[in-house]
Amino acid sequence: MDNIIMIALGVVLVIGLVLFAYIALAGRKKSTLDQAFYRREWQKIEQLQKQGGGGWQLAVFEADKLLDHALKVSGYPGQTMGDRLKDARNVFRSNDSVWQAHKLRNRLAHETGIQLNTFVVSKALGQFKAGLKDLGAL
Fold first, then answer.
1. Which of its termini does the chain have fewer beta carbons within 10 Å around, N or C?
2. Domain at 35-135, CATH from 1.10.3470, 1.10.287, 1.10.260, 1.20.120
3. Interhelix angle for 95-110 vs 118-135, to 10°?
C-alpha cells in the first residue's frame, strides 16, 4: 500500500512539474513575425550600409526601427523601445550588444559630430540582426 501511495505521489509530482514548465514556457512570446517582410527590410538596410557616408546613419536608424517593430509585433509592452528591450531581455542571447546598438542609434539622433566608420556600422548592424534573429524575425 505504501508503494502505491509513493508511486501516486511521484506521478502527481511529475505531472505538476510538466504543467509548471508548460505554463512557464507558454508565457514566453511566440514568434508570429512575417520573416519574409523582415528579410526584405533587412536587405534594404544592407543596401544603405553599402552606400557608406549618410547611408550608414540611415542604416542604423532603419535597423533600430525594424527591431522595435519586431518587439511591438511580438507583444512586448512599453512606451519606448528601451522599455520593450527591458521586457525582452531574456530573449536576446546578448542583451548587452542589442543595447549597444540601440545606444549608438540614440547618440546619432541626439548628439552632433558622431563619426561613423565601416567597423562601427558593421558591428551595430550585426547586433541588430542578432536581436532580430533571437526574436524569430530573421
1. N
2. 1.20.120
3. 130
In this predicted structure, the answer to whether residue 110 has a pLDDT above a threshold of 50 is yes
Taking the model in full, what pTM does it have? 0.78
Place of cell 509530482: 13
Helix H or strand E segment including 69? helix 54-73
Taking the CB of residue 134, how many other CB atoms lie within 10 A of it? 19
Q: Could you give the CA distance from residue 54 to residue 72 in angstroms, rounded to a whole number?
A: 27
- Using alpha carbons, select from 130, 72, 77 the residue that is nearest to residue 101: 130
